[in-house]
Amino acid sequence: MPHRNSIKTLLIVDDSRVSRMMIRAFVLAKYPQWIIIEAASGNEALEIVGRDTPNYCTMDINMPGLIGTEAAAQILAKYPGIRVAIFSSNIQEAHRTRAATLGARFVAKPVTEKTVAQALEFFESQA
Amino acid sequence: MSTLSELQLDALTEIFNIGAGRAASSLSEIVGEEVKLSVPRVQLYQSSEINAEVLSLNSPRVGAVKQSFSGPFDADAMLLFTEERAMEIVHDMMGSQVGIEEMVEFEQEAMCELGNIILNACLSSMADILKLTLDSSLPAYSVGETDTILRQIVSEANQPVMLVLHIDLAIEKRLSQGYLVFLLSSSSLRELLIHIDRFIAGI
After folding, report:
1. How many A/B residue pairs have CB atoms within 8 Å?
2. pLDDT tens track for B128-177
3. Residue A1 confidence (pLDDT)
4. Which of B20, B22, B200 sits opposite A18 (nearest CB)?
5. Interface membership of B128 toward A (CB under 8 Å)
6. Contact at 8 Å (CB) between A45 and A13?
7. Are B69 and B87 in contact (CB under 8 A)?
8. Chain A contact for B195, CB < 8 A?
9. ∠B115-B121-B126 over CA atoms, to 5°?
10. What pTM was estimated for this model as a whole?
11. Is B175 on the interface with A (CB under 8 A)?
């Protein structure tokens, strides 16, 4: 039985609409009650986070404007309680290390049921 | 002229983004430096429209690595690099112990390998995501005047449609531009778009 407080808000940040659609679909298949907000850039994500603080966030790296790791760093500096999964095709060690330093989980694209499950597992692993 | 819908373009860009990410990861392991990538831009051209100006290739000479792919659709894939950048990348790949004079000997091989990594990363991400199998030929490298190379590509391929992917990549402090060019026949493009639409419909 889903508990009342199990309704969570997830912010999906990705410049690709197809990627956002896929993440949304896989998340809602598992948690139909969750509220999903989308942002197409790091800058837009910062605005949204300041307005309606989400519980969780998936963050792409290669986006026009502010790159994802930088956006995640700014979000986490201000709202350390948000769980961030860096969801990226840029799978280089430098980005994995950066994600770990930020306290975020790195998940390698492509977006699949399995990779979305990795992000969800991280979101739900908090005490 | 065939055009791509916003969603088809988005899906193709994302597929190549994943491929470019995989390629950058392999490259960064080879050169021991972080490889920075821009968001790929995907555009569709008629072969007759292609020239150095259209591609904003503002270098007099380019290196081209060519590989043919076959499967549910056939494509000739090409990676274009401005020549001096290519040599710098080869230098990074071979390490500083190799002198400039010796490097010329390795250029052919190193560029084929570089092309092989990048082209296969992009094509394999396309194959994985669209759930299809693509076979590839061995890469071939040529270098020459930009317009000559482009004319050669267009006339040899004899395909009416070109899918051009533009990626900026920077290794260490060197900024380079790479173009990935896919030559497709109209029927291959139709087949590719059927797979893209099937993928989008499955979301």
Report:
1. 57
2. 899 888 888 888 888 889 888 888 877 876 677 888 888 777 776 666 66
3. 44
4. B200
5. yes
6. yes
7. no
8. no
9. 125
10. 0.80
11. no
The answer to which of A111-125, B30-44, B62-76, B188-202 has the lowest mean pLDDT is B30-44
C-alpha dist (Å) from residue A24 to A2, A21, A30, A33: 19, 5, 10, 12
Q: Is the pLDDT of residue A127 over 80?
A: no
On whether the CB atoms of residues A10 and A57 are closer than 8 A, the answer is yes
Chain B CA closest to residue A97: B34
Please, what's the b/e burial string for B104-126 (b: 16 or more CB within 10 A of its CB; e: otherwise)? Answer: eeebeebbbbbbbbbbbbbbbbb
Nearest to B203 among A22, A62, A64 (CB): A22
Q: What is the pLDDT of residue B175?
A: 65
Cβ distance B21 to A17 less than 8 Å, yes or no, reads: no
Query: How far does the CA of residue B125 sit from the closest CA of chain A (Å)?
Result: 8
- Contact (Cβ atoms closer than 8 angstroms) between residue A92 and residue B24: yes
The reply to whether residue A110 touches residue B128, judged by beta carbons under 8 angstroms, is yes
Question: What's the pLDDT at A4?
Answer: 46
- ipTM for the complex? 0.71
A:31-60 residues touching chain B, CB 8 A cutoff: none
> What span, in angstroms and rounded, lies between the C-alpha atoms of B189 and B162?
9
* Contact residues on chain A for B200, CB-CB shorter than 8 A: 18
B13 interaction partners in chain A (CB closer than 8 Å): 16
Residue A48 carries which side chain, given as an amino acid letter? Answer: I
What are the start-end ranges of the H helices in B131-169? 146-157
Locate the chain B residue with the closest alpha carbon to A21: B203
Question: Which tens digits make up the pLDDT trace of A16-72?
Answer: 888 899 999 999 999 999 999 999 999 999 999 999 899 999 999 988 899 999 999
